[in-house]
Amino acid sequence: MNKQSVDVLTTIAFLNIKKGLSIICFLTALMSCQTSIARQNDLVVRSTLAGGIVYMLDCENGFSGGNVAASIGPDGILLVDDMFKANTPKVLDALKEISDKSVRIVVNSHFHSDHIQGNSVLSGSATIVAHENLIKRLKAEGSWAKQEDYPHITYSEKLTIHFNGEQIQVFHLPNGHTDGDTFVYFTGSKVIHLGDTFFNGMFPAVYKSGGGDLLQLISNMEQILKDTPSDVKFIPGHGNLATKEEFAAYVDMLKKSTSLVGAAIEKGASLDQLKEDNILAKYSSLGEGGAQTTEEYLTMLYKLLSEQTASQNK
Predict the structure, then answer these.
(1) If DSSP codes are grouped into helix, strand and coil, which group holds residue 96?
(2) Residues of the chain whose pLDDT is less than 50?
(3) pTM for the whole thing?
(4) Rounded to whole angstroms, what are the CA distances from 307 to 195, 262, 311?
(5) 55, 96 in Cβ contact below 8 A?
(6) Which residues are within 8 A (CB) of 111 and not within 5 positions of it... i.e. 6 or more apart?
(7) Is residue 254 in a domain?
(8) Angle between helical axes of 294-312 and 244-266 (0-180°, round to 10)
C-alpha cells in the first residue's frame, strides 16, 4: 500500500472516529477502508454537464471524495473541491477529456479531507481560495493537513470571481455543516455547489466539533432555497446532481425530521423509544443512500437537539 493510500485510509478512519463509532465499529470501518483502497484502481471519475460551462465530477466504483464542480472555458479551469489526494490525478485526467486548459483556481467548500486533500497536488500551479475559518481548522492541533494543503487566499463573508465570462459568487453562511462552509454560485451557468450542507438522496451530517449547527444549517438551506431561481442546478457534496425541486424536498426533510425528534424530546422520550417507534420511517430510504443509516441520523438529531434543549433550559 503506497503513502497516498495510507493517507486516505487514515483520514477515513479518523472521520469515522469523529462520528462517534465504537472501537469495534472503528475496526470494521478500518477493514472496509482497506478494501476500498485496494480497489482504488477501479475508481472512475465521471463528468456530467451541470449547466452552461460548469461540470460536476463524481466517482463510480467506489468512494474517492466529495463532488467537484468545474468551470471550463477560455480562462482555464476553476474547481470547487478536489477530492482525496490519491484521486486528484483521476480528476485531472477526466478534465483533460473535456479541455486542454489547466486548473487555475480551486475553491474549497469546507475543511474535510475527502473534499480538499487534493490541494497538495494543485497548490503549486493553482490559486486555492477558502473561508478564513477553514484555514484555522487546517492549522489546528491534530489536523490531518500540512502546509501544502492550506489555501492561498481566504475571505470573510463573500467575494466575486470573474472567470470564463461569468460572475462566480463565493459566499459564506455561518455554522452549518461546519463553521467554514463556502457556497459557490456560477451565475451565468445557473449552477451552485453546496458542499456537504447538501447530501442528495441520503442523510446529512453536522459536525459540532467543526463548528456545525443543525438549526443554523436548516436556516442556511432555507435562505439558499429562497435566493436561487427555479432553474438552478444544485451540486451536492455527495449524491447526484439535483434540481431545485429535489433540493426543496431535502430542505423539507431536514425541517420535518428535526421537528419530529425535537417534539419527542420535549415530551421526555428516550432515544431507545424513538428507535423502537421508528419515528423516521418516512425517510428510511435515505438511510440506504450510502452516508448515515436512519438510526445514525436519528442518534445525531437526538444528541444535537438534546444538547440544545439543555443549553436553553440553563
Answers:
(1) helix
(2) 1-38
(3) 0.87
(4) 25, 11, 6
(5) no
(6) 130, 133, 134, 137, 138, 145, 178, 180, 210
(7) no
(8) 60
- pLDDT of 60: 85
**Domain assignment of residue 56, yes or no:** yes
H helices of 108-267, where?
113-116, 119-122, 132-139, 214-227, 244-266
Q: How wide is the angle at C-alpha 74 spanned by C-alphas 71 and 78, nearest 5°?
A: 25
> Among 280, 119, 306, 287, which residue's Cα sits nearest to residue 202?
287
Q: Per the structure block, which three cell numbers stand in for 180?
A: 467554514
Distance of CA 296 to the CA centre of its chain: 18
Tell me the residue range of the domain where 64 lies: 43-243
Radius of gyration of the chain from its Cα atoms, rounded to whole angstroms: 19
Residue 21 located in a structural domain: yes
Looking at residue 43, its pLDDT comes to 86
In the prediction, which pLDDT does 38 show?
38
* Pair 10, 114: CB distance under 8 Å: no
Q: What is the pLDDT of residue 62?
A: 75
In residues, how long is the chain?
A: 314
Task: Report DSSP state, residue 209.
Answer: G
Residue with cell 434543549: 309
